[in-house]
Amino acid sequence: MRLVFAVIFISLIDEISSAAISPSKAASYLEKFGYAAPPSYRRSAGNRMSSSYLEEALRAFQEFSDLPITGKLDEATLTKMDEKRCGNPDMTGTVNAKRKKRYALKGGKWDHKQLTYKFINYPTKLSVSQSESEIRTAFQWWEDNSSLRFSKVTKGEHADIEIMFAVGDHGDWDSFDGPGHTLAHAYFPVFGGNVHFDEAEPWSISSASGVKLGTVAAHEFGHSLGLSHSDVTTALMAPFYSPNTKGLHSDDIQALAVQELYGKSLEKTDTVTQSPVPTTGKTEQTNTKVPPISSCNGRRFDAITRLNNGSTYAFQGEMFWRLNDKNADKGFPASIRTVWGISGKVDAALTFNGNTDIFQGHILHRFRNGIRIQTSNISSIYRNIPSFVDAAFEWSGNGKIYFIKGQKYWRYNPSRGAVAFGYPKSLSVWGGLPKHIDSAMKWKGKTYFFENGQYYRFADYKMHVASSTESPYPRRADERWLGCRGNALMTGLAQNQKRTVKT
Ligand SMILES: [Ca+2]
Ligand SMILES: [Ca+2]
Ligand SMILES: [Zn+2]
Ligand SMILES: [Zn+2]
């Protein structure tokens, strides 16, 4: 299919003698930055894939980059694609999807204005003091235009924004590409706000002798604050590196202001208290923030997945938690609708190959780097996988994708894009699991299953739930994943029961 794609592209090339970017690279480029649907979608699109589809992707890119809109892979377009730029996507949907408003941000915002940052490491081409001065200047640009304040903390301390320099594959499935092209990428607040720089770039304190670190950092910090790319080419938040940028553009300041006003803070989302058991009686609803204690009532997780940035997300009803290794992060639970931009409960969540897929009924929402890049029927992405799945996960045992629905499970080969022969099979193959599974995930190289407020760790080589004489599985999910402990757990239950009785 890649070949066919390339052939169509060649027909769109406008008589270029020496193209710096090959047609297949141009196709990858349009995918990476959100102008064309990813390959798994195109594969299933089959014959419907047409040169007009690709033309439209090119038009969208040309429009966003302020190039003549030709729909062809002309010289100006190829030159633009060869430029240094930020690795975050430009578009939040495929070209067929309705274009999002420029400031329709789904990245959330920080619940505090005094933010901290730290260096995980430093670029080899600059001294520590040069690096710190460049980063300080970059934050200053944002401080000068907002009430936000940034301070550096030392390595051992927690920081809101972590700064890291890395080459190639660095653990988040969004590999850097050597000198040129992608310079850096960054995560929205809800995905941690961290910034990664491509260590292969000639980082410099001056744009005359390399890539000016401060300029690139200032752009990336915009993402750390929840801002998307701007199609105003002179804005700091425009995706391309511009050595002459000296500060924020009015477009950036407006974007920040709009976001400060309308951007939803994780801390301030409306929440609804949950009853520990289904009840026909009305339960009290409250618009105040749920105290952390009420997370502890034997929560069952509808869906759970660990993103490539290391954060784990657990969904229940309309709410979700971001989990660290011990408990839930401050400010959670938060509203799924507010942060992810999708309404209703989630059936299952799967992170694979850099994408996070959220399953709801017949529908799949695909997210990458914190941005929704696609919404489709499940069957158009995962052929022959049913609607209303219970759980989806990459099994640590073999790197294949598995889906569970009822007492059946499907093994899916992602590289072939097909269900393996002979599936679905009975869930009883997975030794020691209950007859129903709420959710499952791969977490730090191991697979975990969740059911009715309890969880099981799976021993891949035994094809059975892990055995533990001290504390056998299943174990309480809220204790392990939300950090609930004895008293807190009891109090949480008692409070909820009291409310249910009263009303
Ligand atoms: Ca690069
Ligand atoms: Ca589920
Ligand atoms: Zn960017
Ligand atoms: Zn990265």
From TrEMBL:
<keyword id="KW-0479">Metal-binding</keyword>
<keyword id="KW-0677">Repeat</keyword>
<feature type="binding site">
    <location>
        <position position="219"/>
    </location>
    <ligand>
        <name>Zn(2+) 2</name>
    </ligand>
</feature>
<dbReference type="GO" id="GO:0006508">
    <property type="term" value="P:proteolysis"/>
</dbReference>
<dbReference type="InterPro" id="IPR036375">
    <property type="entry name" value="Hemopexin-like_dom_sf"/>
</dbReference>
<feature type="binding site">
    <location>
        <position position="177"/>
    </location>
    <ligand>
        <name>Ca(2+) 3</name>
    </ligand>
</feature>
<dbReference type="GO" id="GO:0030198">
    <property type="term" value="P:extracellular matrix organization"/>
</dbReference>
<dbReference type="GO" id="GO:0008270">
    <property type="term" value="F:zinc ion binding"/>
</dbReference>
<protein>
    <recommendedName>
        <fullName>Peptidase metallopeptidase domain-containing protein</fullName>
    </recommendedName>
</protein>
<feature type="compositionally biased region" description="Polar residues">
    <location>
        <begin position="271"/>
        <end position="294"/>
    </location>
</feature>
<feature type="signal peptide">
    <location>
        <begin position="1"/>
        <end position="18"/>
    </location>
</feature>
<keyword id="KW-0862">Zinc</keyword>
<feature type="active site">
    <location>
        <position position="220"/>
    </location>
</feature>
<dbReference type="GO" id="GO:0030574">
    <property type="term" value="P:collagen catabolic process"/>
</dbReference>
<feature type="binding site">
    <location>
        <position position="198"/>
    </location>
    <ligand>
        <name>Ca(2+) 3</name>
    </ligand>
</feature>
<feature type="binding site">
    <location>
        <position position="349"/>
    </location>
    <ligand>
        <name>Ca(2+) 5</name>
    </ligand>
</feature>
<feature type="binding site">
    <location>
        <position position="172"/>
    </location>
    <ligand>
        <name>Zn(2+) 1</name>
    </ligand>
</feature>
<keyword id="KW-0865">Zymogen</keyword>
<feature type="binding site" description="in inhibited form">
    <location>
        <position position="86"/>
    </location>
    <ligand>
        <name>Zn(2+) 2</name>
    </ligand>
</feature>
<feature type="binding site">
    <location>
        <position position="201"/>
    </location>
    <ligand>
        <name>Ca(2+) 3</name>
    </ligand>
</feature>
<keyword id="KW-0378">Hydrolase</keyword>
<dbReference type="InterPro" id="IPR024079">
    <property type="entry name" value="MetalloPept_cat_dom_sf"/>
</dbReference>
<feature type="binding site">
    <location>
        <position position="304"/>
    </location>
    <ligand>
        <name>Ca(2+) 5</name>
    </ligand>
</feature>
<feature type="binding site">
    <location>
        <position position="237"/>
    </location>
    <ligand>
        <name>Zn(2+) 2</name>
    </ligand>
</feature>
<feature type="binding site">
    <location>
        <position position="302"/>
    </location>
    <ligand>
        <name>Ca(2+) 4</name>
    </ligand>
</feature>
<feature type="binding site">
    <location>
        <position position="347"/>
    </location>
    <ligand>
        <name>Ca(2+) 4</name>
    </ligand>
</feature>
<dbReference type="InterPro" id="IPR002477">
    <property type="entry name" value="Peptidoglycan-bd-like"/>
</dbReference>
<feature type="repeat" description="Hemopexin">
    <location>
        <begin position="298"/>
        <end position="343"/>
    </location>
</feature>
<feature type="binding site">
    <location>
        <position position="185"/>
    </location>
    <ligand>
        <name>Zn(2+) 1</name>
    </ligand>
</feature>
<dbReference type="GO" id="GO:0004222">
    <property type="term" value="F:metalloendopeptidase activity"/>
</dbReference>
<dbReference type="InterPro" id="IPR018487">
    <property type="entry name" value="Hemopexin-like_repeat"/>
</dbReference>
<feature type="binding site">
    <location>
        <position position="438"/>
    </location>
    <ligand>
        <name>Ca(2+) 4</name>
    </ligand>
</feature>
<feature type="binding site">
    <location>
        <position position="223"/>
    </location>
    <ligand>
        <name>Zn(2+) 2</name>
    </ligand>
</feature>
<keyword id="KW-0645">Protease</keyword>
<dbReference type="GO" id="GO:0005615">
    <property type="term" value="C:extracellular space"/>
</dbReference>
<dbReference type="InterPro" id="IPR000585">
    <property type="entry name" value="Hemopexin-like_dom"/>
</dbReference>
<dbReference type="Pfam" id="PF00413">
    <property type="entry name" value="Peptidase_M10"/>
</dbReference>
<feature type="binding site">
    <location>
        <position position="170"/>
    </location>
    <ligand>
        <name>Zn(2+) 1</name>
    </ligand>
</feature>
<feature type="binding site">
    <location>
        <position position="178"/>
    </location>
    <ligand>
        <name>Ca(2+) 3</name>
    </ligand>
</feature>
<keyword id="KW-0732">Signal</keyword>
<dbReference type="Pfam" id="PF00045">
    <property type="entry name" value="Hemopexin"/>
</dbReference>
<dbReference type="Pfam" id="PF01471">
    <property type="entry name" value="PG_binding_1"/>
</dbReference>
